[in-house]
Amino acid sequence: MNIAIIPARGGSKRIPRKNIKEFCGKPMIAWSIEAALESGCFSRVLVSTDDAEIAEVAKKFGAEVPFLRPAELSDDHTGTIPVIRHAVEWVANEGERPEYACCIYATAPFVTPADLRRGLDLITKAGCSYAFSVTSYPFPIQRAIRIDGNGRVGMFDPAQFGTRSQDLEEAFHDAGQFYWGSAEAWIAEEKIFSEKAVPVLLPRHQVQDIDTLEDWHRAELMFRAWREEAK
Q1: Where would one find the signal peptide in this protein (predicted)?
Q2: Over the stretch 164-219, which tens digit does the pLDDT of each residue have?
């Protein structure tokens, strides 16, 4: 069996109640739940939360919330991997044996059922520990600049000043949507960014990190345009 785990902590600081704030007509978390359910990849779709209101919203949109996440896994410093490990072990202790577990972020409205299926296909064929969403940087990272304390500019890598952008290696970053992993990898808390992982490539117009209100506004504009184009 495969399970989806959507971590959704209640204590968001920069955007209060971010996980259930309305995004383009639905609570933010609803988009992730619906994509997981529609993908057909999962025997169970679970939400791991410490918050009763988030739990009720999650159940309304079809997810299971069979436990409330313990306080020691709900602070500002707890990483994703221990949270997913806790959920995988909870399911195993209930007598079920998940083969793969997919962490889907609650703030990933651009996640699609097709991309979740593609991730499952990649991890099973590759026989690796993880498969997760990535996208390319829109500009060569080797030509990045910094602004110092005096308001002056400098290059991170001055040696690349004269290098043509087309001659620089393309770079990618975590798209922050989903992370397929074997149950064993989650339980062992293996690192995700390693040679044991394969990328699920996404187009840049389908990726937006949402940490600030400016991010939120940009994401809604992108989302509406994306949905309109898909009609």
Answers
A1: none
A2: 989 999 999 999 999 999 999 999 999 999 999 999 999 999 999 999 999 999 99
Show the tokens assigned to 77. Answer: 């410093």
pLDDT for 229 equals: 83
Cβ atoms within 10 Å of 82's Cβ, excluding its own: 13
Among all chains, which residue has been given the structure tokens 């500009």?
139
Q: Are 53 and 23 in contact (CB under 8 A)?
A: no
Paired tokens of 209: 């990190």
Judge whether 189 and 81 are in contact, CB under 8 Å: yes
Instruction: In whole angstroms, give the CA distance from residue 74 to residue 23.
Output: 23
Distance between CA atoms of residues 79 and 221, nearest Å:
29
pLDDT (tens digit per residue) in 25-54: 999 999 999 999 999 999 999 999 999 999
**What span, in angstroms and rounded, lies between the C-alpha atoms of 225 and 213?**
19
Q: Which domains can be identified in the chain, with CATH numbers?
A: 2-135+174-230 (3.90.550.10)
User: Which of 160, 114, 156, 161 lies closest to 133 in space, CA to CA?
Assistant: 114
Phi, psi of 180 (to 5 degrees): -75, 140
Counted residue by residue, the chain has a size of 231
Written as six digits, the tokens of 105 are 């972020």
Q: Counting Cβ atoms within 10 Å, is residue 199 exposed (0-12), middle (13-18) or buried (19+)?
A: middle
- In this predicted structure, the answer to whether residue 231 has a pLDDT above a threshold of 90 is no
Pick the closest to residue 133 from 144, 155, 118, 121 (CA basis): 118
pLDDT at residue 14 is higher than 80: yes
